[in-house]
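Recap from last week: sequence in, structure out.
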Amino acid sequence: MPTNWDDLKLFLAVARTQSLSGGGKALRLDPATLSRRIARLETVLGRALFVKSPQGYVLTDAGEQLLPHAEAAEAAVQRVELAGAGSAGPEGLTGQIRIGAPDGVANFLLPQVCAAIGRENPNLDIQIVALPRVFNLSRREADMAISVSAPSTGRQTVQKITDYKLHLAAAPTYLHNAPPLLTRADLGRHRVVGYIPDMIFDKQLDYQSTLEQDRVALASNSVSVQTNWIRQGAGIGIAHDFALPVIGGIKRVLINEISLTRSFYLVRHSDDRKIARLNRFADRLLSGLRDEVNRLEALA
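Predicted structure tokens:
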């Protein structure tokens, strides 16, 4: 097993991006140099670590075996760096922390919560990556991620953040011009806004089964697009209660007939639980998100 951290760093970059160009960009190395370094590492080990496929550079069995050791080395280096720099002094948290999240929470909750954390820690850089998919923490796409369901596999720790509510919602302009909407049975006469069915990345987001409607007239994989359609009076759809005060111009309908409860979870790489700096940030993020959901839902 190699003990050179520089070699392991190169290996991790290619494993996580599945390409020489992506790994080179992350490390600021040209792909040709990175290719030579990886080839040299494979020669030292006497085993191929990657195989070229249509999907890019995929780990071989030997690469899969090396991956957890490389990640453990990375975590150890990070702990040493943080200990040297100090996880927090009188100025608070420092450095950079990246959060991955579905675009609903990324658009309507994280900006105000992270803004408050940033004011408390002026030397901390916070990055929010909003993507409608599950984040791969083993590839270090983010330091931590928010999920709508608790993952059951992988070397991860999971903390429940809070429950949140969703209701059918519409703009007054839409309701004024549309057929009456008095019961669930009336939904068949309305234009429904929702997810693209084959792009629902988590079963907790499959709201159409609750609405019992096969057709989605206006569909997007983005919650922000969906809520903007609703706000513009294009149709009706399921919306987060916490988003309604932020968006404005939308009201809940059929409240007693259609009401959903879902949960947010904070997911982290298990090794990162040893890093005090990330623990402090996670604790503040959890409390901030819980308070903000409660505040906004009370205004819905």
